[in-house]
Amino acid sequence: MTAYSALSAHFGRAAALSNALGILQWDSDTMMPKGAVGTRAESMALLRVLAHEMVTDARIGDWIADAEADTALDAWAKANVREIRRVWTVETAVPADLVEASSKAISICEMTWRQARADADFKALLPYLSEVLRLQREIGTAKGEKLGLSAYDALLNDYEPGGRSARIDALFADLAAFLPGFLDEVLAVQGRRPQDAPLVGPFPVEAQRAFGVKMMGIVGYDFERGRLDVSTHPFCGGADNDVRITTRYNTDDFTHALMGVMHETGHALYEQGRPQAVLGQPVSQARSMSVHESQSLLMEMQACRSREFLRFAAPLMREAFGGEGPAWEADALWRRYTHVERGFIRVDADEVTYPAHVILRYRLEKALIADEMPLSELPAAWNAQMQELVGVTPPDDRLGCLQDVHWPSGGWGYFPTYTLGAMTAAQIFDAAKRADADILPGIARGDFKPLVTWLRANIHGQGSLYETDDLLTRATGRPLDASVFKAHLRRRYIEEI
User: Binding residues for Zn(2+), per the UniProt record (predicted)?
Assistant: First the structure.
């Protein structure tokens, strides 16, 4: 057995453990009874320790060195060795007992967050979130010492390999300077729009689910390798070739759940389109979370909030929900789906205000990881930044700092990838439309094959063959450029009115 064969076999077994963890995590978030939280925390902690032990095996360093010297490896194998080295370097920085402690703290904190969020009770979450934060600081510090990075950049690197806060600071400063004035301009233009009648419910959950499933099939989701369920916080998870998504429903308004489904379907299409020939290897994984978020936001924001899609979908919506009258016409639905307002909830935010929600979280988590702000001050700091960036102050913590599961679940360093993803989505969709003139006409007739085919070839099927900047440059002709995103916003919210 060659060194590369040994590596690929070893990491294939590690992937099997990861798949098991993925299904257990999905079950924890969707169906597990509350009374099982302690047992599940122990089980998942053990599996995470076993997975950690596998990817820190003492033999891996020698295998990597020998494989890197193997001139017979093809491009995919070389990239796989590169990705294995990346994983191994990071994981060997963190001791197993810290992995286990973090896993247990996260499992308990997640379950506590659900009740604390429902009760708008940050104080109930505080001791558990404090423990998660303490352990995340330790993990970030350990990884940072190995990589020569700050604790925050080391955590960011887990989601955005090669990403650095200095670059994000510059990109976000550009957006923070652009958005307030642009938001005022959009709201002024929007105020001159026709006042549309409301969509009157109720909209039964069963009907919403059936319509969401129909739309998932239209855009290309493979139900032989996934399913749709309900969770407190919508997500895409599961395992290789078992890609599961969730949403949440409001019987007074079907529009949010539908776009939530389209968003998570974008993630799922990426997962279902990853290269099967190397599935289970690090090189088969999605390139980064900014690229992953680009795929969900491309599907939801770029494609499914377009005039083309809503002209196609309007009669299907009327049929699904028994709608009639002017409010159900395509132009009225487009105005509804491009409506901009200052709001409290990130996942319900529009394209224009969403980046501000992310910038807020990015600033706060950087300060918390750096221990520049006590966690007890989070609600007040959150509310102050919401007023500064979005122009509203949450009335309680349920609509404020308790709304997201990311920090209770250990996702520190994740938030900036959402807005990086929005910028990436605009750039990729622009390139796809330029490459294939049938993409927009296809969407207008409910045919997503031209778009998905292009994405399969240029993004999904590339896995982690290329680094993020290289992948984006190959697909679009340039590295990430915020000007494309800003031009998209101006075109949709100012020029298309």
Answer: 263, 267, 293
